[in-house]
Design brief:
By secondary structure, this protein is an alpha/beta fold. The chain is globular and about 40 Å long.
Length: about 150
């Protein structure tokens, strides 16, 4: 299973947060990842546009960092005939899966912007952008990641 991870609106509130809240939900995500040790993570967040993979890995604790295996391409850089309209994040994910020879791989995206995915996308775990991940999400997220 591959987890495609957004940051803003998932690991902390998307707007109106202070510096103390930055990545405040990271410990819960890391706990989820410890529970499902076979899950790899690919960053879909816009943070990938200004940071290297090593810099993104350094945001995670040492036992989780090696499981951050890549970043999706930016839509504007994808040279493809595929047309997804406004479902850019899903297109980036599906392009990454094809590019790395994993088109049939089970995947789950954790994101606060469902409009970036096709309607009723079964691979989306949507968070509330005002809070990001919350404690009630822990069990559901673990269950979704284990259902491969």
């Amino acid at each position: 299973m591959i987890l495609f991870l957004d940051f803003d609106g998932v690991l902390h509130p998307a707007v109106n947060y202070d510096a103390a809240q930055l990545l405040c939900n990271m410990p819960m995500l890391e706990a989820v990842l410890r529970t499902v040790p076979d899950v790899e993570v690919v960053v879909t967040s816009t943070w990938r546009e200004t940071r290297t993979l090593v810099e993104l890995q350094s945001l995670f604790i040492p036992d989780i960092a090696p499981r951050i295996v890549g970043v999706t391409p930016q839509w504007r850089n994808i040279q493809s005939a595929d047309t997804y309209g406004v479902y850019v994040r899903q297109a980036e994910i599906e392009h990454w899966l094809r590019e790395f020879g994993k088109p049939w791989q089970q995947w789950l995206a954790v994101d606060d912007q469902p409009h970036l995915f096709k309607p009723f996308c079964k691979n989306l775990f949507a968070t509330n952008p005002a809070t990001g991940l919350i404690e009630d999400d822990y069990e559901v997220l673990v269950q979704r990641l284990c259902s491969s």
